[in-house]
Amino acid sequence: MAVPKRKTSKARRNTRRSAVSKLAMPAMSKCSNCGAIKAPHKVCKQCGFYNGVAVLKIEED
User: Fold this and answer.
1) How many structural domains does the chain have?
2) Are the C-beta atoms of 4 and 13 separated by less than 8 Å?
3) Is residue 6 in a domain?
4) Per the CB 3.0–4.6 Å rule, which of 11, 18, 40, 48 could disulfide with 29?
């Protein structure tokens, strides 16, 4: 059974834990049709366009 030879210091432990837990801001891009902010490579939820082509019919109330 593996047993550590030395105690891991709090600084080393916390450094290891903090490197993994940082969340990155998700990438966003502008819709080429309406200019709304959307996720890249996804259909725009505002107008239903993707790559200049109408993919979804969005009904306005």
Assistant:
1) 1
2) no
3) no
4) 40
